[in-house]
């Protein structure tokens, strides 16, 4: 992790907002700044140059182990009263509300990623009349910071992508041989095998619940999981999957055309690939995200498919599989060098079938770099 | 789903709060009331006896398919302006904030599960001075409703438990034979195989990222996932896992003692099993959750292990794997017949090793019914 570099950028942002103290509630924001991902909250104090990570007792040792920055870890909760102090080198016996009130009350101006604050805490403490006017919402500051990746972050996303693609490729090879030998294959067995292959490639977790759809289920952007459904007679299968590596996610989709009925799906895939390349060609620093979306949408319009593309073209990817920026007709984001984006053109014919492809790309000053190495059409 | 029965209970609760209109934001709350789980929000209007589910366009068809109650599904987002109206039988071209403001402004008293409201929406709309005094927080109303299960809900949790246990049992059999044939086994391969077996048992998703820990990783209540770590020379392995069935979760933990070094772990397991039975014996309607926790803790104290049990004894389980009630020394919950709980006594020796067992039980008027069938010690 290049946490020192990231912390420096964060500190600069706080200074430009005239904030000397910040409380970070979002799990992914804490992971971004420290390397620890789990319950708890972070207090960043520029005056004393200290970082304090408050966690429940059950996360205390893991937090100490996973921290990539110099920070004090404190076990909080009134539960620790009943536990041996030898277990925890640093404890705070107050509950979350009491600790948060103490921090907010001690400083005239505190930054907080309010969009990630626990709502119950907010309703009781942060939003109370005497405190809310001293709290500055830094949700968007962190979103913007996180949207532009360091070279380390790019490497982790690339590694997640390459390993996820290896698992996908193996799955499709296994599928082809199972189909050739006329085995009955269920969507549950495909999903299970795909996830197993991801762990065998050394990915540390799933970035999201993978999508494995065939038949009319491919007409849903987010299909229900029906484990017992047979693959038999399906013209194609949509696989949307991503693992995480060093906390960072990827997100890859392939539509695999099976041996039969391929005349239905091939023309769709060709239109999606054209839309993908139109969008890819438009990517460079300074271009608006909505313009990139429009390029893909226009190409689908040319193929008579515009009305069947019912979501945005893509999204930023990082610690969260969906993060800033947003690529859609409604987006006001502007692309910056170092952003890592998915491009996922798709078509869905209601009640019938659909198709989607998805790659991950890095925005550069003068173009885009694709992280995927798998072919788009299978 | 027995959604009609659940809706009736919910309606009674609203009436006793003198609420005629409610907005539900929590994904699990919406799933509880309708059968649809995904992005969106629900508007419940007692005066017109209508339920309206607002979803993004990409979830429109799935929502229509998964609804178990009579409700109107509306695709919202300004994106639909650019899409063919034939695709969506019902659209609202406003964004979430505009729709929410309209609902809140139209009624003198609106219930909302505020703890699940999107914070950005709350900061802009719900929390604004002219609206916040007409909004009644029904977060705890829904938590309390959901904590007492219908017979259907119990059946789904039981089915999830039995299927999860079948996968666990197969995994351990495979593990034993792999160990006997001296194969090198990694934690990643165990985790992948476990998840594959869950899908082969027909579970529809993971209730949470399964825990697969061996060696000093068992000393962490929530250990990091290290896929490449070998099982070699580990005295035992901790497996904490649960799939979902018909939206409902389970949560099962077993500590599997391997062939070697079992003298370290066996006595711990015996203490955990005694603690589990002490707690189980205390469960019945009307008992406080903290008392059940205390029974287990006292038994661990007798074995000199009290300081090493650093979390609560258990939690409610349902659509969410962690829901009301809480079993801990700090809990103020009282047990009611129909609650479904986990009991998960554990010990963790910092930096060395630990062990945990976990079962799911139903509170009855005069005792407890255990859903698990697997033996506690392996």
TrEMBL record, chains A, B:
Protein name per UniProt: Aminopeptidase P family protein
The keyword Hydrolase is annotated on this UniProt entry: yes
InterPro entries with a match to the protein in the record: Creatin/AminoP/Spt16_N (IPR029149), Creatinase/aminopeptidase-like (IPR036005), Creatinase_N (IPR000587), Pept_M24 (IPR000994), Peptidase_M24B (IPR050659), Peptidase_M24B_aminopep-P_CS (IPR001131)
Example of a GO MF term: aminopeptidase activity
Domain Creatinase N-terminal intervals: 7-148
Domain Peptidase M24: 155-364
Protein family: Belongs to the peptidase M24B family.
Keyword Hydrolase carried by entry: yes
Provenance organism: Fervidicoccus fontis
Coiled-coil boundaries: none
Keywords attached to this entry: Aminopeptidase, Hydrolase, Metal-binding, Protease
């Amino acid at each position: 992790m290049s946490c020192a570099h990231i912390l420096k950028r964060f500190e600069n942002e706080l200074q430009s907002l005239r904030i000397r103290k910040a409380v970070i509630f979002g799990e992914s924001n804490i992971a971004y700044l420290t390397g620890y991902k789990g319950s708890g909250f972070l207090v960043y104090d520029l005056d004393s140059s200290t970082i304090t990570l408050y966690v429940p007792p059950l996360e205390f040792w893991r937090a100490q182990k996973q921290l990539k920055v110099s920070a004090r870890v404190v076990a909080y909760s009134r539960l620790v009263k009943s536990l041996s102090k030898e277990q925890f080198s640093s404890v705070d016996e107050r509950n979350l509300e009491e600790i948060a009130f103490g921090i907010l009350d001690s400083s005239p101006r505190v930054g907080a990623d309010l969009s990630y604050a626990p709502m119950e805490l907010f309703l009781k403490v942060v939003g109370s009349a005497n405190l809310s006017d001293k709290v500055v919402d830094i949700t968007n500051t962190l979103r913007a910071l996180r949207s532009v990746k360091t070279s380390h972050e790019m490497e982790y996303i690339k590694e997640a992508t390459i390993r996820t693609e290896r698992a996908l490729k193996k799955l499709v090879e296994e599928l082809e041989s199972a189909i050739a030998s006329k085995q009955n294959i269920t969507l549950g067995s495909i999903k299970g095998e795909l996830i197993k292959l991801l762990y065998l490639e050394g990915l540390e977790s799933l970035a999201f619940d993978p999508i494995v759809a065939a038949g009319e289920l491919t007409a849903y952007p987010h299909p229900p999981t029906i484990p017992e459904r047979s693959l038999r007679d399906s013209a194609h299968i949509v696989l949307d999957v991503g693992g995480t590596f060093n906390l960072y996610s990827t997100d890859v989709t392939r539509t695999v055309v099976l041996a039969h009925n391929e005349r239905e799906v091939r023309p769709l895939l060709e239109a999606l690939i054209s839309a993908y390349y139109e969008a890819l060609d438009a990517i460079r620093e300074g271009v608006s995200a909505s313009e990139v979306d429009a390029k893909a949408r226009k190409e689908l319009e040319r193929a008579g498919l515009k009305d069947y593309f019912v979501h945005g073209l893509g999204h930023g990817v990082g610690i969260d599989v969906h993060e800033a920026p947003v690529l859609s007709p409604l987006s006001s984001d502007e692309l910056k060098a170092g952003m890592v984006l998915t491009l996922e053109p798709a078509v869905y014919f209601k009640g019938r079938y659909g198709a989607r492809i998805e790659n991950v790309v890095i925005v550069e000053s003068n173009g885009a770099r694709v992280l995927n190495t798998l072919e788009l059409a299978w």
